[in-house]
Amino acid sequence: MLEGLEHLTTEELDTLVSIPVWIAALVGGADGEIDREERVWADRLMRARTYSSPGLLSEYYRVVAQGFLEKVDEVMEVMSKDAQTRNAELSDKISAVNPVLARMEPAMGASFYKSFLTLAEETAKASGGFLRIGAVSSAENKWVKLPMLTPIIFEDKGRKASSWEDEEQEA
Question: Residue 167: which H helix or E strand, with range?
Fold first, then answer.
């Protein structure tokens, strides 16, 4: 059990762990299929987050990174082959995390929210542009801001930032 998430149900934890997989499938596959370069970058992103994210987020991404590509492949296999239909289904799945984030301590929920946005942006930039880096396709652009998520913004200037807040301040 990840420290700070003990109050979540098993179903809520499963949803939380599935979100990065669904984000990678949504953004990476928004234009049809996830190409080889997007798969490689998605795997690298997950592995990097296991050591570059401090505290709880690092532990969270260690759990998420286990079998990550296999999970993305499974999602792409079982979901609709039509990108528009699949994107709508994935959007619905991702929106299921809104009540989970709302149950967290505000600073923690905001950190997870920011982390998901960063993941979507990094996934979108994984292909395209010069040397396949930096460009976001119009199909990906529709989803990169994760419009299905309720924004969580937390600023408390009166206290020291906790380990899960540090990640976004360093990024």
Answer: helix 163-170
**Taking the model in full, what pTM does it have?**
0.85
User: Which single residue is written with the structure tokens 């499938």?
Assistant: 25
CA distances, 11 to each of 56, 100, 155 (Å): 19, 10, 29
Distance CA 34, CA 38 (A): 6
Spatial distance between the Cα atoms of 139 and 84, rounded to a whole number of angstroms: 9
Per domain, the residue ranges of the chain are 10-170
- Inter-residue contact 26 to 138 (CB < 8 Å): no
CB–CB of 59/108 below 8 Å?
Answer: no
What end-to-end distance do the CA atoms of the chain give, in Å?
Answer: 26
Short-list 157, 72, 145, 68, CA closest to 114 = 145
Task: Summarize pLDDT for 79-138 with one digit per residue, the tens.
Answer: 999 999 999 999 999 999 999 999 999 999 999 999 999 999 888 887 654 444 556 677
The first and second tokens of residue 30, run together, are 């928004």
Question: Structure tokens of 40?
Answer: 């490689």
How far is Cα of residue 94 from the mean position of the Cα atoms in its chain? 9
CA distances from 40 to 16, 19, 44, 132, 149 (A): 22, 18, 6, 12, 26
Name the nearest CA neighbour of 168 among 127, 129, 121, 112. Answer: 112
